[in-house]
Amino acid sequence: MENVMPLVLVRTPTYRRPSQLKRALACLQAQTHQEWICEVRDDCPDNSARHVVEEMCDPRIRYIGNSPQQFLVANLDACFRRDNPYSADYFFMLEDDNQVRPEFMERGIGILEKNGASICQINQVIENASEQHLSKFGLLDGTFDERIYQPEEFHLALFGGIGISNGGVFWSKNIKRELSFRTDTIPALDEYIRTCLVAEPIYICLEKLAVWSQNENKTTRNLGFERGWLRREIDLKASIRFIRRKVWKETPRNLKENFIKGDILRIPTEIRMLALYKAGVKPYDTSASLKGRAKQMVIRSLGRVHPSVTSL
User: Fold this and answer.
1) Taking the CB of residue 108, how many other CB atoms lie within 10 A of it?
2) Residues 66-95: what's their mean pLDDT?
3) What value, to the nearest 5°, has the Cα angle with vertex 169 and ends 184 and 197?
């Protein structure tokens, strides 16, 4: 009887970045695991990504033009839904400016099958697009060891480290809780929320099998209409503070003690203490500068916690 290879569903949100999109799709074609389907979710009103998809001439690449336009957060979030129109076995999201190594899918499947998990976070190197340089370190380095983390342990990464990174998370159809929160939020807050949504053991893979593009100054991803930068930043910090306080409150006492001692995560002590200070968690204070204390006062008094966080 012929073995049926598992199907991977990739979702790629895009907005007016044809050259980057073409590169991202090419790295899918180079995968050692070739059983995949990619949905290209184009948020450009002019459907500018359609030409790239047609040019690739690969039946596994499916074009979806958003109507109406969703903007950055909603287009990303739709890529994490549990919807499974192709009866796929595994899933991940690949942004148009990011990449994955040829072994990414094969290793993701192998990790989940070997460890009996439904979700893993795979390490990413950082690409500085303007300098055409890849970092030697990975985003997960300095935070995690390679092992399975319980969700309560994983959530503590929000105190100075990184939890869910959109471009490195790989999951199966058996995931306990979908990573989509199905509401609007502040850009950059979505990964904090997704980290909190992890409700089961998660395997951390330190192999650097993905590439995250750090090119925010020149990004063409749109953030929506009439959203002021300063207001967004103050609200973002206030919302992060709210999330951290919630996570800390729900963390068992023994895990709190082990986290403070550095027994759970590798986040440096001063960074952990600063994150606890910013969350207003006492008595873990820090000798913050006058400027730092003033900034926290502004966030506490003027920052508005986003509804997407309070509904967690």
Assistant:
1) 28
2) 96
3) 50
